[in-house]
Structures are given as structure tokens and as C-alpha cells.
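Q: Hi! Curious about what Glycosyltransferase family 4 protein looks like structurally. Here's the sequence.
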Amino acid sequence: MKQLLTNLLVLSPVAERGGAERVMVDTLKYLNRNKFSAKLVFFEHGSLVEEMSRLGYDTEVIPADRLRDLGTYIRVVSKIRKLIRNDQIDIVISWMPKAHLYGGIAALLEKKKSVWWQHMIPKNHWMDKLASRIPAHGVLCPSKVTKHFQEKLTPNRRVLLNNLGVDLQQFGCSTNKTKSFREKMGIPEDSVVFAFVGRLQRWKRPDVVIKAFNQVAKGKNTYLLIIGGTLFGLEQDYEDELKELAATGENSKIIFMGHQKDVGAILEAADTVVHASLMEPFGMVIIESMAVGKTVIAVGQGGPVEIITNGNDGLLYDGSESQLVQLMDKVLNGRVSLAEIGIRARQTVEKKFTVAHMAENFENNLASLIN
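A: Let's find out. The predicted structure is below.
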């Protein structure tokens, strides 16, 4: 007997790649299509519309504009309801709280199950609070810390853990491009290269990494790569502030690279990746770096402590600039076995944090909500 498909309607308010959107793409890319069928609706036009179409998914754009426009809101919810009926949708999955403001109501009115993805640690933001009040059969969270804070907002609702994963075809399996990349960037082959990877936003604290680097880099053969830029129009002046900060120290050794499509190839050329967020909801950059066999230095709270075993497959610090300086200095002076830690880091990712694990957890979580 042919197995019946579970029909999913996935709603995304954003159609460009950010952290949450990358998780959505990778999850759906590895979704078992013998069990699940999915249609995607984006609330704006963007590159992800075509990307998901190339993956074989039916996609549609329903412009949502601003929530304060009641007429537009009603129109969007009505269109989602129509899709639920026409496509015989079983579960509405809203990717992020904003999408659930539409999808949760549409599913409720159509008497269908609804789930939403909470990518960030929920705080006292009005959107998190409002989304958490709209009925849902479950909320998916990437880490225990995110799950903990979401449960405080929704104590009577199922909140399920769904760790993230790395596509090992993109990270850690490429040919070694270290020498060619360093030559291209004018970095000596025998240099120690640190890297910061992520959006340039204040909460990610790249300024702390630059300050710490400026302290340890004096007279040393070392460089710092800043990989990433502003996104979604947030804090657009911050990159200029960081460049001014870099100019106060080892400016010639700090390279701002902007957004990069092939981050894995650049990570091959780094020795150590430094992460500085004080309360990271998970740490996708951390597991990507570990997949490439790099030693990650990360703050010992939030998502990173669920990934890294300190001293075994990475290094944790208290978040202070002073302790970060100490660890970076140890790396520079060869008092950390980067090769051994890198091998164990890769093994941790292979065991726990691949896209296959992430997609399987996603399917199991959905199955638990259906049954």
C-alpha cells in the first residue's frame, strides 16, 4: 500500500538567506519526500523563491507588507486559508514568530495543526509575546536554552528541541585551499589566522574580538578575518564603527571580507574561529567551523555549551575580553593543540550535528505532533 503523504505549508516572512532561512532551506533539502510534501509561501520576493523552486518545491509569494495594515493582514490570512483548503494541507509550519501571526490564525480557522520555528532566544519583544499567544500544536527550537525561554512564554504548549546541522558536502569535504587563499589575500603561509564569522551586529560582539586581537597581535605574525556584513538593513553603520576600531590597532592585519557565499573554503584558511555572542541561541557558525576541523573559541553559555566540550573539541571562555586575550595568546604561542582539537571537533559534528540529523529530528517532531 502506498504511504500517504503529510502535506506541509511552510511560511517564511523573508526570502533572502539569513541564519533561520538557511536552516529552513537545509531542512527541506533533506526532507524525506516519500513521507512529506511541502509548499512554500514567502511574504516577499527574493532569491529563496527561485532557490526553493530549483529544489523542486512549489513556491508562491504573498506580499505581507506591515502588520499594522489590517486590510493587508486579513487578505494574507485569507489567501493562506485558501491554500490550506486547495492543497489539502495537514500542518502549517511558520518559520519564525512573524509568520505564525498569519499562519497560526489561518490554521486555527481551518482547524488544521500549526507549528512554528523559534530561531532566537525569545525575550520581551512584542512579536515573540504575540506569537506565543496564538494557538499552536508545537514550537520547534534549535537549542535547550532557546527551548527553556520559549517554555516560559508558552508553559502549556509543547516546545520541542530540534538541533541544527551542517551540510558536510559544503563544509569539510573540499580540497585544501589554504595556500591559494592566503596568497590571494597577501597572508604569509606561516601566519596564525583567526576568523570571526557572522552578521555585523552589536549583540554578536565582533568589537570584542577586534579589541582582543589588537592586544595579542602586536609584533606577531597573525591576521584576523572578519567574514560577514550587515543584513536586512540592521545596524548599517556598525561596520564603519568596527573599521574605525580596527584602525586603532593592527589595522593592516584585520581583513574585512563582507558576505561570502563559500564560507567553508575561507574557513579552510583560518586556524581558529572566534565566537563572541554572550547568549547565542545555538551557534551555526560554530558547528560549520568544527566541521572544517577548526578550533572554535566561544562564550561558555547559551548554545555553545550544548555543542562544545571545553578543551576537548573546542575552547570556552567567560565572555570577557581579558579571558579571550589569554586564549588567543595561547593559540599564538602554540600552547593549544589546534590539530587534535580540530579532529575531535569534526567527529562531534559527524556524530550529532549534520543536516541529516536535523532533518530526521524535524520529521520525528512533526510525526509526534500528528499522532
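A: A fun detail: The longest strand covers residues 6-12.
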